[in-house]
Amino acid sequence: MTAKNKFPVLKTDRLILSKPLVSDVPDIVRQANNKKIEAFTLNIPHPYSEDDAVSWLNMINQGWNEGSQVTFKVSTKTDKEFIGAIGLKINKRFNHAELGYWLGEDFWGAGFITEAIGAILNYGFNQLNLHKIHAHYMEGNPASGKVMEKNGMIREAELKDHVKKDGKYLSIIQYRLTQEEYKSIIK
């Protein structure tokens, strides 16, 4: 994963996962500028501005160039609408990655993120040959855990009062899937 490598495009039944572009900035702002999105994430502020979107694009492009991150925009196949983002932060030393994602509120509950996670797990294990992919959610957002479970991810820990957000300590619930576990569920 370097600037020399072509950025992958992943397709599912209803989605296209591809490289976020500067032309996506207005859509990124429109979807991310939501207090509910900020409430369930650690790194998306509210209000969310154009400068925030440009900084995010710069960060994920740098991660791609360094081989430490691959982040996709999530778009619908039917109208190519930007609906969110999903990606992997890769730890080469330990051959694992942290899965992260967010989805615009108008698209919650339609199974889109479940579908996108499936594509990312396939990519991470079969293209990047990762040993393990892990993800977490903050207490108060159990729907995020449900989409992980729908993809076979296994709850492995609750980190009590692990993060501080808006002056309040919150617990983190962590999930995992190893390559061996992944292969056993896709038979």
UniProtKB/TrEMBL annotation:
<feature type="domain" description="N-acetyltransferase">
    <location>
        <begin position="27"/>
        <end position="176"/>
    </location>
</feature>
<dbReference type="InterPro" id="IPR016181">
    <property type="entry name" value="Acyl_CoA_acyltransferase"/>
</dbReference>
<keyword id="KW-0012">Acyltransferase</keyword>
<comment type="similarity">
    <text>Belongs to the acetyltransferase family. RimJ subfamily.</text>
</comment>
<dbReference type="InterPro" id="IPR051531">
    <property type="entry name" value="N-acetyltransferase"/>
</dbReference>
<dbReference type="Pfam" id="PF13302">
    <property type="entry name" value="Acetyltransf_3"/>
</dbReference>
<dbReference type="InterPro" id="IPR000182">
    <property type="entry name" value="GNAT_dom"/>
</dbReference>
<protein>
    <submittedName>
        <fullName>GNAT family N-acetyltransferase</fullName>
    </submittedName>
</protein>
<keyword id="KW-0808">Transferase</keyword>
